[in-house]
């Protein structure tokens, strides 16, 4: 049996992620034929079309019409994910979308409906999302342990991730960055879709969200750069989510507490403090007033020498096109879960009220549109910066 036909693929969006992550992948990928790349910046489209030996397009619909592609990578500013994906699905194209799936859940829902309608006509249609953090070895091991039930009933998850440092120069490097109209949000929209996806991937969705967001606290921006959230789950578990782009060197520490022990991930080390008995049973039945449970300290071995990040998600996307979407690292439809958490945190902060899930998408979109209309923020002229290694911005 011969090799499957090459996937005819196009890339739309030649910003930092498009040029520094996807172009190298596409240049080396043997299982695809790059039939077009697209960007409104004509010089950039021409430059990278030459790198990939393909055709440059300056309008995505022209690429849809003329290139003969059957799959597309969407790597454009967040608001544009929705109309491009919907048009791609309308044309029966496979889609790999960068995070976040959209800026707000109403747009995400439109994308998912368009996909489901297209999939009804073409059951083999594939919709993937770039949640490459799921492929990282320590995250895989966390998922394995939590899903195994070894910790018993989960009681608390506290994630302090303040290693997403960004300077003012970063925010000034794009005229769309850190604005309600251009980006749709700050750290929750840009850096933390991965963390929010991992949270729901590990623990499921909470029932209630309490959010506290600070707008431009440390940077000259009109969106959030420091956030604390308190999440309540129906099973009684509570979650804490603490993030900022203003701390250096910052902390990335995840504590997962279950009735049979505590799992701690920090500084590329995963430690399990395993209790000999159930903490919940011990609380009720111990004859002492102060004695802790005997626990055993174990550093969990993690194989770090495995493929990960963007190339793995891309390879699985291509494999899914050939063999079915069970191969995907993350289905595009899953993107709405982490986005729901981001929207709920911000809506709670805006209204100073608890948000119940499932949430009202209209309520958040109204808050967002109000901030766009009322914006008095004047963005400095975008500053050009020298090329930097984008891998430094991932896996914090």
TrEMBL record:
Domain GFO/IDH/MocA-like oxidoreductase: 139-263
GO-annotated molecular function: nucleotide binding
Domain Gfo/Idh/MocA-like oxidoreductase N-terminal: 8-119
Superkingdom field: Bacteria
InterPro entries named among the record's database cross-references: Gfo/Idh/MocA-like_OxRdtase_N, Gfo/Idh/MocA_Oxidoreductase, GFO_IDH_MocA-like_dom, NAD(P)-bd_dom_sf
Pfam families named in the record: GFO_IDH_MocA, GFO_IDH_MocA_C3
PANTHER family xrefs: D-GLUCOSIDE 3-DEHYDROGENASE, UDP-N-ACETYL-2-AMINO-2-DEOXY-D-GLUCURONATE OXIDASE
Record-given protein name: Gfo/Idh/MocA family oxidoreductase
Annotated organism of origin: Paenibacillus whitsoniae
């Amino acid at each position: 049996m011969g090799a499957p036909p090459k996937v005819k693929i196009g890339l739309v969006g030649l910003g930092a992620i498009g040029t520094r992550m996807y172009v190298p992948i596409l240049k080396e990928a043997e299982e695809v034929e790059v039939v077009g790349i697209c960007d409104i910046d004509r010089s950039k489209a021409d430059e990278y079309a030459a790198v990939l030996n393909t055709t440059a397009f300056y309008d995505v619909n022209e690429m849809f019409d003329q290139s003969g592609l059957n799959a597309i990578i969407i790597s454009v500013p967040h608001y544009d994910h929705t109309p491009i994906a919907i048009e791609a699905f309308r044309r029966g194209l496979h889609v790999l979308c960068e995070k976040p799936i959209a800026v707000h859940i109403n747009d995400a829902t439109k994308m998912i409906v368009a996909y489901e309608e297209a999939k009804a006509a073409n059951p083999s249609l594939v919709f993937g999302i770039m949640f490459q953090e799921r492929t990282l070895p320590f995250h895989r091991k966390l998922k394995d342990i939590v899903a195994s039930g070894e910790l018993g009933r989960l009681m608390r998850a506290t994630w302090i991730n303040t290693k997403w440092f960004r300077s003012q120069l970063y925010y000034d490097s794009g005229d769309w960055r850190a604005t309600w109209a251009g980006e749709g949000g700050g750290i929750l929209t840009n850096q933390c879709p991965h963390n929010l996806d991992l949270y729901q991937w590990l623990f499921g969705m909470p029932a209630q969200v309490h959010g506290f967001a600070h707008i431009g606290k440390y940077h000259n921006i009109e969106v959030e750069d420091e956030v604390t959230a308190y999440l309540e789950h129906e099973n009684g578990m509570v979650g804490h989510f603490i993030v900022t782009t203003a701390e250096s060197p910052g902390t990335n520490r995840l504590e997962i507490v279950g009735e049979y022990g505590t799992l701690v991930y920090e500084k590329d080390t995963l430690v399990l403090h395993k209790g000999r008995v159930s903490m919940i049973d011990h609380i009720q039945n111990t004859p002492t007033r102060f004695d802790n449970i005997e626990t055993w300290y174990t550093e969990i071995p993690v194989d770090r020498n495995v493929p990960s990040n963007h190339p793995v998600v891309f390879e699985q996307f291509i494999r899914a096109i050939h063999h079915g979407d069970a191969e995907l690292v993350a289905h595009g439809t899953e993107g709405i879960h982490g986005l729901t958490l981001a929207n709920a945190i911000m809506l709670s902060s805006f209204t100073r009220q608890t948000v119940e899930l499932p949430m009202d998408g209209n309520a958040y979109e109204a808050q967002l549109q109000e901030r766009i209309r009322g914006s008095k923020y004047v963005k400095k002229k975008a500053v050009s910066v020298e090329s930097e290694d984008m891998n430094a911005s991932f896996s914090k």
